[in-house]
Design brief:
disordered C terminus; globular; 76% helix; 0% strand; mainly alpha
Length: 351
């Protein structure tokens, strides 16, 4: 009983540090950087903190930017719960977006076909991640290497098709043709880009939490991640769980890419999704790999990015400050996670 209470207390402490202390440290560092880098620090801070809430356009765009971060974070959480880490988010988002877009352009213009195109893009990204899961389950090849390398391979291949066979000659952008208006998600908060995909993202957070903590398959997946040897002796097919978890992780990333096409961009602009994969990982780290904490953490990171962009447009601040803050959050969250791993190992040794 004491051990259970101690575990609950440690878990609560970890989530408190991850969700409150780390963002506060990041904001304090942000303020310090603004005073160092900006000639008008108070004006810059006003636009940074209040800019995303000044009007419907900015507020809606901030909420819309959080949607792919939520989906990417859920993908990371599923992989982590199985004992894996998916570092191929960048390529999987890009792949899902590209397949969804090309399918939507060529298959027709109905809403039903848009759903089919989205499913197809999601499955392609799921397959890409499943390859890494299978390699780990079958030959114990590190998924850190395979997911990253496969992701790096997809990006230039897709760039070739975007800049070559599928390039739209009627636009000044390096992009494919736009999908039909009948295949796009309905807008919610005009004139912003916020669309009905936000409902899907919220629903998937609930479903992921239910799957992980209320179903047998979710329990087996978590046991596989926490103690693979124990799970194997308990009759759990750990190899299948590893492959499936990676496939689901890739599916979430592919879904994020497809939603960005059908809801926001309506075409694949060359490397438009750059940064979404790593941002999803950052959100998962801040959330302590808890689905219930994903939405506020995604909104926090979307607010940081949106505030930096608005401050850049109205003052002399560069957008790179958002990348610096995100890097600090990533480092602090990762340090906390590594510390937690060593604490668990020490507890096993002492126990």
């Amino acid at each position: 009983m004491r051990n259970d209470e101690l575990n609950i207390k440690n878990s609560t402490k970890k989530y408190f540090i991850s969700m409150f202390i780390i963002p506060i440290i990041s904001i304090l560092l942000l303020i310090l950087l603004v005073f160092i880098l900006s000639d008008t620090p108070f004006k810059t801070l006003f636009f940074f903190f209040a800019g995303p809430f000044r009007n419907v356009l900015s507020f809606g765009n901030m909420l819309n930017a959080a949607v792919p971060l939520i989906l990417g974070a859920l993908g990371i959480i599923i992989a982590m719960k199985s004992g894996c880490l998916n570092l191929g988010g960048e390529g999987q988002v890009y792949l899902g977006a590209f397949i969804t877009c090309i399918a939507a352009i060529n298959f027709g213009s109905s809403a039903a076909l848009a759903v089919f195109a989205l499913i197809l893009g999601t499955l392609c990204s799921a397959g890409a991640a499943a390859v890494s899961g299978f390699c780990k389950a079958k030959w114990n090849i590190s998924e850190l290497i395979t997911t990253f390398l496969i992701s790096c391979a997809f990006i230039p291949i897709i760039n070739y098709y975007v800049t070559g066979p599928f390039l739209d000659p009627q636009t000044s952008l390096i992009s494919t043709r736009k999908i039909a208006e009948t295949m796009r998600f309905s807008m919610i908060l005009r004139p912003s880009s916020l669309n009905t995909s936000v409902y899907a993202a919220a629903g998937l957070v609930i479903l992921t939490h239910f799957f992980l903590y209320k179903t047998r398959q979710g329990y087996e997946l978590r046991i596989t991640g926490s103690n693979e040897l124990f799970a194997r002796y308990g009759g759990i097919n750990t190899k299948l769980n590893t492959t499936l978890a990676m496939a689901v992780s890739g599916a979430f990333y592919g879904l994020a890419g497809g939603i960005m096409i059908l809801g926001t961009h309506h075409a694949v602009i060359k490397e438009f999704s750059q940064g979404v994969g790593w941002s999803g990982l950052t959100v998962a780290l801040i959330a302590g790999f808890s689905p219930a904490a994903v939405i506020p953490c995604a909104l926090f990171l979307a607010w940081i990015n949106s505030g930096a962009r608005i401050a850049m447009q109205n003052t002399g601040l560069t957008f790179e400050i958002a990348s610096i803050i995100q890097a600090v959050i990533f480092i602090l969250s990762t340090s906390l996670y590594i510390k937690n791993i060593f604490a668990k190992k020490e507890e096993k040794i002492n126990g």
